[in-house]
Predict the 3D structure of the following.
Amino acid sequence: MTPRTTDWWRHAAIYQVYPRSFADGNGDGIGDLTGVRSRLDHLQRLGIEAIWFSPWYLTPMADAGYDVTDFRQIDPRFGTLAEAEKLIAEAHERGIRIIVDVVPNHVSNEHAWFTAALAAAPGSPERDLFWFREGRGENGELPPNEWQSIFGGSAWTRVPDGQWYLHLFAPEQPDLNWRSPLVRAEYEDILRFWFDRGVDGIRVDSAAMCSKDPDLPDYDHARFPDPHPYVDRDENHEIYRGWRAVADSYAEPRALIGEVWLADPARFAQYLRADELHTAFNFDFLGCGWDAAALRACVDQTLAAHAGVGAASTWVLSNHDVTRHVTRYGRPDTSTAAGIRQYNPEVDEDLGRRRARAAALLTMALPGAVYVYQGEELGLPEVEDIPADRRDDPIYHRTNGKDPGRDGCRVPLPWTGDTEPYGFSPADSPSPWLPQPPTWSHLTVAAQDKDPDSTLNLYRTALTLRATEPTLGDGPMQWLDSPRNVLAFTRGEGFTCLVNLSTTPLPLPPHTQLLASSHPLSENLLPPDTSAWLRTP
Ligand code: TEU
Ligand code: CA
């Protein structure tokens, strides 16, 4: 069983599985739970302590499973509830904790609540679970306000009887009305459903967007009004206090992890007060370019904001929504690494990977928890040239391809072999749901397993050290004086992390042991775009 040390969320290395693209057990080209179960060895060997699963529930897949029809059923493409329970138990036997993804802002348009709302009349209690409104204009032919969908286009869709409903994401994702006590009760029950099945934590999707100004006021999209009509409203905190009470009602308290994209660190930290969420993804760090001053400022600001509420920080380089960081860091102008999703002409993939490896040692040495998005341990780049007719992300389609969308970071993992499906599916299966590049044979798990200097072996070494070094994870850090464009800090007695973002080699300080380096070193010098962990006297 899992050694249930309390507060594991303050220090754990957490691996994000995007089930559709991790491993396909039954050969239909779509990842599934059988595939995950068959690859638990890979995750255990990697040295991670928890797995976060992107949604695996019943879904029509209008937004890759973030459109949920029923949170208590597993989508048949992924498996069954019995198999999910087996997977949770098997992970626990290996000492790996499980986090599932809960999406409170919206459900699928196929959810029983929404089909009932469509069948019911305007003004009915069924419609009150969502945001149905009359339109504007002479005959109500204009949407109730000018809000735009985050995926492009209007945030409103009209139904046959003339009313409109709100969807901040795709039209297939109607927003729930969190002023309704029924919505609140249902979600607390969904949390219990998964906690009762042994799940150790919940990732809360779009956590800062649930509450809306009930007047649904128009606003100028160029300005960010305060209070905003749907981002980071104070009413959100009441929701998560309720969730925290559910999480804390278990003998081994369960963790709540928020997806909170907010520019203001003080507002961000409010979600992490002692009676709300335990941790939240730190997207500021992900938005930094390959720039020592920016990274250092972000670390300081992050630690200060978290210290104010007694919460532990998290460090994230990639996830299923942003351009993979090998590609971001390989752009000619890395300040645009902050452009989390864009086409990437002229990327130097080798340079990007080199920096990505250095960044991995940095994030794993910083105080708090660290996330690894599936495939980053293989140094996978963004796949840029997916043909239009194979693209799946509604962002791509709703923006007519102006925004590349997120398919490029969701390409199925390469495990073995020289050609598609690279062991993702059994041999002779159809092409995976997104095509894999023909050039990935050197990036497979099998190929990298044999190479001591591979990205995979770097991750294994670093994550294993991280789990055993007593001063890594949660705890204090201390910056050291360092030359320009170098980050240097200690973690307690005897552990120093150096990151050389400059263009000149850096002489290593006195040390008794080189614990890890993101690139082979020679002559006691740390080359550019390289990190090292040192045992220091
Ligand atoms: O994302 C919420 C979200 O708003 C950001 O990820 C981002 O704005 C978006 O990807 C465009 O950059 C979460 C999930 O992580 C994402 O996969 C879902 O599509 C979205 O919620 C809707 O559930
Ligand atoms: Ca499958």
Observations:
- The chain has a mean pLDDT of 96.
